[in-house]
Amino acid sequence: MTTDSAPLLEGRDLLQLYAAPTGPTQALRGVDIAVRGGRISAVTGPSGSGKSTLLAVLAMRERPAGGELRHRGRLVAGLSRRQLQSLRRREIGWVAQRPTHSLFPQLDALGQILEMARLRGVPCDDNAARASLAEVDLEEVARAKPAVLSGGEQQRLAVAAAAVGAPALLVADEPTAELDDDSAALVLRLLRDRASQGSAVVVATHDARAIAAADTVYRFRHGVLSGSQDAGRDHTTTIDGQGRLQLPPEALPLFPDRRVVVTVVDGHVELRRAE
Ligand SMILES: Nc1ncnc2c1ncn2[C@@H]1O[C@H](COP(=O)(O)OP(=O)(O)OP(=O)(O)O)[C@@H](O)[C@H]1O
């Protein structure tokens, strides 16, 4: 398990470029990030802001065009293809934005779990695999292949498979996007369980349910990390006669132009940046 003092992954000045008809798109522009075991990190921001790109770089599916990524202190760029392949297979769980992209089309749900365990070198028999499916309420489709599952079932299966054996790094792109509240709660509980077993969990998300479940929220804008916030820090403040309140200093970078959308939900108030 990675402790708080030693990040599992450290990205410095990460840059990613993609070719586009109008010239290169800078999908990541100088991103610094440290990812630690035992925590859920949520990466959020508008569509096209670079969330998926960051996840692909952190999961070592893409090499950054610039900057450096270290894994347990070691430069990822210095790993051989074989080392990288073995690291990805054994230590990194990946849930693609389209869940079928991280599933084996020819295997049924039970087979997905067993195959992932085999690749990862984790002991797993049929009973253990069925227990993994039960965590996301998929026991009844144990013999179904991805093509016949609903979008939400595919998504839950992709998360369950990626989470087999609590990999050191578990990266999931929009893991709750297709899910109703009950299913989202199962997935978020599973992610929390793996974090408590030591996994560093990183999700890209627009989903308030996933953001609320995270320990740290990173906010992205135009490929730049515009702020981060640790959960669980309560601040007591007063509201004046006109309804004004003072935000804590660390909340201010979340509202660079000082415009805020205020929503009253279920007896509490949410503040978010006006887009
Ligand atoms: N393979 C690619 N080729 C070319 N451009 C790409 C590629 N992948 C991403 N981009 C561009 O890079 C930028 C960041 O995209 P990315 O998918 O990382 O954003 P995102 O925040 O995950 O968006 P969404 O919330 O819509 O999934 C966008 O401008 C996108 O068009």
UniProtKB/TrEMBL annotation:
PROSITE patterns xrefs: ABC_TRANSPORTER_1, ABC_TRANSPORTER_2
Domain spans labelled ABC transporter: 9-247
Alphabetical keyword list: ATP-binding, Nucleotide-binding
GO molecular function: ATP binding
Keyword DNA damage applies: no
Keyword Metal-binding set for record: no
Family matches, as Pfam families: ABC_tran
Family: Belongs to the ABC transporter superfamily.
UniProt name for this protein: ATP-binding cassette domain-containing protein
Organism: Paractinoplanes globisporus
Taxonomic lineage: Bacteria, Bacillati, Actinomycetota, Actinomycetes, Micromonosporales
